[in-house]
Amino acid sequence: MKKIIFMGAMALATFTTQAQDFKTVLEKTFTAFDTTWNPASQIEQSNKLSLIAKKWDNEWVAHYYAAYSKAVLCYQEKDAAKKDAYLDEAEKELKDAVSILKKDNDETFVLAAMIANARMIVDPATRWAKYNAIFKEKLESAKDLNSDNPRMYYLQGTTKFHTPKAYGGGKKAAQPYFEKAQGLFTKEAGKDITMPHWGNNNNEYFLKQCKEGDKE
Q: Whole-structure pTM over 0.85, yes or no?
């Protein structure tokens, strides 16, 4: 009996250590990815996130962050074919995340919206109608599950920010979305890495741009 208890305790200790290692590695790698503006460094950290997703294949959030990193790389890439290749990888990782969860949650819907928006930007003239509809649909689905997810408003803000004023966009139109997101991001302070909380730094940047625009 004592032997069984000892073996059970050892198994629990091993599991706890592995879980801690996973969270530590994921947080360190994602932070490195999320805080660099160097393209080569971003690619390197994104590749590491993909490796983490392979090592901890049963952790949905590992696939989620790998997918997010590929979507971000798409925005930095200039070549259209490479943009789509990154998004193919992002969609595969996101699909794996949803498969592990056995359903979408508000975060996977938001990331799906981000990927759809990136698809549209690759070739706006031919893709706007299809992917703009998907973008809106995914954000609505996310809102139905959690209306306090700040990344929804951040993505809506960036879309408005980059839309010409003649079509209802611009800094003034985008600012309310960034302000809404800012308040919700504040509530996420200290959040665990296994609970997605990206977007705050970029939201602050865009909000500052909007406020400076009002002063001009």
A: yes
